[in-house]
Amino acid sequence: MSDQTAPDASSADTQVAAHQDAVGDDARTIRERLAQVTETVRAASREAHGDAAAVRVMLATKTQPAARIRVALEAGHTLIGENRVQELQAKAPELADIPHEPHLIGPLQRNKVNHTLRAGAVCVQSIDSLAVAQKLSDRIAALAAEGHDALVAEAPGTLRTVGTLRTVGTGSPDSEQSGPLVDAAPGSPTSTADPQSPLLDVFLQVNTSREDSKSGVTPAAAEELAGQVRELPHLRIRGLMTIGFPGAGDDEIRPSYAELRELSVRLRDAGVLPTTATELSMGMSADYALAIEEGATIVRIGSTVFGARD
Ligand SMILES: *Cc1c(COP(=O)(O)O)cnc(C)c1O
Known about the structure:
Bound molecules: pyridoxal-5'-phosphate
Largest sheet: 9 strands, mixed
Strand content: 5-15%
Number of domains: 1
């Protein structure tokens, strides 16, 4: 029977149409969930900080294909976080035409520093050793010495890198000048660009859960690391990041977030962290409301927007 061995044109059309409907439904769901989370975060931010815009939503995009990330970016979202350098690299070319602000939020090995910079990361939130921080700063210096083109060599980062590996005239990591974290248009080039003194934004990752997690320094070790990283000429510390206590109950999570906030205040009061290093990256899908109550300025949301990961 011919219609069993070779589907006719109209059934092929039906399949294509069904596929497009599914893609359209998926995109709509992402947009709706993103809008919901954004609204919830704005309300919580107003409550905690008296300012609806004091907390930013970072989309945690691990395992998500570029096409689904693009849906969020086309809806006007800009801040995304990738866990793996390889994923950051793979998706960068596909998203290069949309200004956005990709951070690295997973562990960084020294041999991936170059890839991270060239893939256009505008911030590394996972600094937990002097060795990696030193390598980042050295590598930025080397790229700057090759000239501005080297900083933006692999096209995906072009737009973003100009506004990012910044470029503060004085070259002072403590400069009050606001960076891409607070820029309305993170992709826009800065007029003060000085390729000789580019700065990369970083967060120090602190392990506030005391679990045997490999990532993050202990709160006790954060002071020494902050003092060391602060001296590096091409890094600018924007704040602290913690994974906290994923999967734990509120009474375990809350203290781990409170501890990050207290640590941040203490280190700034002591002059160890720059006074401008006020960002607190903490909170995920399950607990972001609580993290905002404890002072988060960036919450990292994955599954609430993109659905459960396999
Ligand atoms: C995956 C991930 C998130 C987001 O997790 P969800 O529970 O999916 O919201 C946040 N931060 C880091 C570092 C992650 O790896």
